[in-house]
Amino acid sequence: MKLYKLTDANGRTRNNTQWGENITHTATGDVAQGLCSDAYIHAYENPLIAVLMNPVHGNFHNPRMYECEGKIAKRDGQLKCGCRTLTTIREIPLPVVTTTQKVAFALLCVLDVYSEPSFVAWANDWLTGKDRSAAVAARAAEAARVAAAAPGWAAAAAAAEEAAAAEEAAAAAGWAAAAAAEEKPIDFVSIAEKAMNY
Question: Which run of H or E residues covers position 88?
């Protein structure tokens, strides 16, 4: 099956495994372990999801992307998957995702699972470009926290109009949406594709 692998600028992953074209690695850990263990090698089924989830998964600066082949043995929904054996076939261009698109992805994920009215109003205003001011974002975050004892991800998403917070917002929203997806499935791929229109 065609998959995608992110590495750092030197072609390595967080456990210092070296990747490159036509390199195969096999996990050695006990398959009874979770996805984030030595039992599975992380990969993605969608290149956009790989880039958007990088801040919470690998957090690679200047990442590289490889097209790979592997058989999925374990999944975290659409967010990532794990293989016992993975082969990186060739390096491919990383999808270009702007700060605005990362923020849009964060907000669209949160809006799929969170409905506090003032937060929703702010998020929709941000998405339409009607109001992206920091002051309004701060008020929306505070209302969300007060109204529903909202976890920190809501505040992170609300602060996302600042470029420096955009990746944190995308990461935080992704985690929150992933947790909520256990009760309500979320189509992260469709949300990511929609976010590319911003």
Answer: strand 80-92
Domain ranges of the chain: 2-92, 99-195
Continuous H helices in the chain: 47-53, 99-113, 117-128, 134-148, 152-158, 166-180, 188-195
Q: How far apart are CA 181 and CA 116, in angstroms?
A: 18
Distance between CA atoms of residues 24 and 19, nearest Å = 8
Burial of 97 (0-12, 13-18, 19+ CB in 10 A): buried
Instruction: For residue 122, give both structure tokens.
Output: 């702010």
Residues of the chain with pLDDT below 50 are 147-171
- Please tell me the distance from the alpha carbon of residue 197 to that of residue 182, in angstroms, as a whole number: 27
Here the tokens at position 84 are: 């016992």
- Please tell me the pTM assigned to this model: 0.78
| Separation of alpha carbons 176 and 186, rounded Å | 11
Provide the token pair at 47.
Answer: 């290149």
Q: What's residue 123's pLDDT?
A: 86
Strands 23-26 and 41-43: what pairing? Answer: unpaired
pLDDT of 142: 64
Of the candidates 87, 86, 83, 88, the residue with the CA atom closest to the CA atom of residue 40: 83
The closest of 197, 46, 47, 4 to 108, measured between CA atoms, is 197
